[in-house]
């Protein structure tokens, strides 16, 4: 997969960001951080679960730690209390609406909020509120930052136009090289403003040595997994493109080959409408896997879930912009099998890009249930020595590349450079 290559002017910009990031790392209370006293507003539709929501809280925590004032505008959600515990300030704002008339009204309300709170910079992480924030920040002259948390598929002119707002930031953050290349290809006008800041994992939380065995046992009981039974985990919101049906088909093939003592757990937020759930349940029943493949709903303890799993699968049928679960699973030392598309090849190392001795997981063709089943068997049949070596390589890989501290430092440095350039 070709990696995104910055232009010459971008290299200059990247060097400034890198220098600013180094300055951030050196700050230990003896120097005033360039963002100290600044007010940074992040906007996200809601704070329930997901990579964008987690990144919002991580950046709010980093801002609070350096003396900045971190505001987060959203419609609320189960993670609001966590945001507040990390020093973030939640502002109730109708950021989910896609109603054009409501969005026009929200532009005026947001501009008023920006002025009232003396906001220095606005960072938006979703398309609908980005249209609102773009209008508001143009009114107030406030720097406007966007992050592409998704690949934002869509080939129609209308859809591309709707998605284009995320490329109109004064700074455009891509969470992977895949995402950066896609932005530059679809929206060439944004190429000079793209900054790759890969997602960050909190390795204090995703550390197998810190998970009490009682947490793992509690999940096994909640999921009705018996002693001696293995768990194959697909942890993602229940959306068609996350590949649940591909896993069901692969599970059917494995059971036909004699696989036993295994439960397939689908853990993730379920949609408000139930048409997909009914369709998925019908597929499970038709495959004869009722009770073997189970929907578990939202999981609040992902480190324990990943540690409980014998194998984690990410069989997405559309490109992932990053691949958070694959990174977290590797941090926990759990083998992973992922679809070979989007940013997942950046997260999971496998041949032919690396030698087999450097493998950190398995990659298979997207939508290929047979290939998925075969890779799952290989992963499950590893001996103890091979599994331990794989786990060590995988954890080293993600520790080196995807730490939350690195993401925080680079994001705050990018804010500081943008604000300095605005004068």
Q: How would you portray this structure in words?
A:
- With 423 residues, the protein is an alpha/beta fold.
- The protein folds into 2 domains: 8-200 and 403-422, Rossmann fold (3-Layer(aba) Sandwich); 208-401, Rossmann fold, CATH 3.40.50.2000.
- 45% of the residues lie in helices and 14% in strands.
- It contains 16 helices and 13 strands.
- The protein has helices at residues 8-26, 51-65, 80-85, 100-116, 127-140, 157-163, 177-186, 213-222, 244-256, 275-286, 302-308, 324-331, 344-347, 369-380, 384-401, 404-422; strands at 39-43, 69-74, 89-92, 121-124, 144-148, 171-174, 194-196, 230-235, 262-267, 293-297, 311-314, 336-339, 362-364.
- The strands form 2 sheets. The chain has a 7-stranded parallel beta sheet, sandwiched between helices. Strands 10-9-8-11-12-13 form a 6-stranded parallel beta sheet, with helices on both faces.
- Helix 1 crosses helix 16 (404-422).
- The chain is globular and about 65 Å long.
- The chain starts with 7 loop residues before the first helix and ends with a helix.
Features:
423 residues, alpha/beta, Rossmann fold, seven-stranded parallel sheet, 13 strands
Distance between the termini: 39 Å
Structural class: alpha/beta
Q: Count helical runs.
A: 16
Total discrete domains: 2
Form type: globular
What CATH architecture of the largest domain do you see?
Answer: 3-Layer(aba) Sandwich
CATH fold-level assignment of the largest domain: Rossmann fold
Sketch the major β-sheet.
7 strands, parallel
| Strand order across the largest sheet | 3-2-1-4-5-6-7
Query: What name goes with the CATH superfamily of the largest domain?
Result: Glycogen Phosphorylase B
Order of helices and strands: HEHEHEHEHEHEHEHEHEHEHEHEHEHHH
Which value, in Å, is the CA radius of gyration? Answer: 22 Å
CATH class of the largest domain: Alpha Beta
Output mean pLDDT: 91
State the helical fraction.
40-55%
